[in-house]
Predict the structure of Release factor glutamine methyltransferase.
Amino acid sequence: MLRHAATAIPQRDARLLLAHVLDVPADRMTLILRDAVSAPQRDAFDALVARRAAGEPVSHLVGRRQFYGRWFEVTAQVLDPRPETETLIETALEVDFTRVLDLGTGSGCILLTLLAERPDATGLGLDLSEAAVELATRNGGALGAHKRAAFAVSDWFERATGRFDLVVSNPPYIAAEEMPGLAVELSFEPRMALTDEGDGLSCYRRIAAGADAHLHPGGWLMVEIGPTQAQAVAGMFTAAGLGEVGIRQDLDGRDRVVLGRKPL
Ligand code: GLN
């Protein structure tokens, strides 16, 4: 069924779903492939395959997803962590920071990954969605980062107090007019995590405008972008007074991150 459905990798998806039903790690599946499967397990697997074939993301079906080597609980109320966002992680890990702000934190995967990679750092994750804040808080607990990560409901910088060495964000950047043409899978994610209901750039305007007041001198602002947005966002960063403005590519060679530094 999956071979004809909205998935590019049917065998991997089937394996992940079966591993979930059998409650074994996906990389151990080969060891038990000859074991019998009970009727309830087969029914549960068939039901998940049918939902996957209708476009529901694997992460929603199994309730979690790996990002930068760690597992995060994922629900339909947050953006599904994506491999290209690891480019933002790689870029952030090039600089020094001890205090991080993550705007539109969703599952918390960006902030919590950065804190896990930098054991002396602390951070604040903000999101307009209460469900996202609850989920990110749970993910922080599961990763043992609850003492170093705080999460709160906030409209962008609204609830951010103090200054940070690093401000990161993967905001909704799909333009409203692009939404109807998107893959069916994205319809299972919250619309507010995908589009700004405008030209796709309005969140960057908000973020660039607030950066100076929330960065320490020498602090960095780094955002994920859609591949066509690099020049526009870099221009906003420069206009906001940031220096060392740069653009980074993801593993597919597409522009994916814009960064800039508040002058010392
Ligand atoms: N990277 C997502 C996509 O195009 C978009 C998420 C976002 O707007 N930050 O699938």
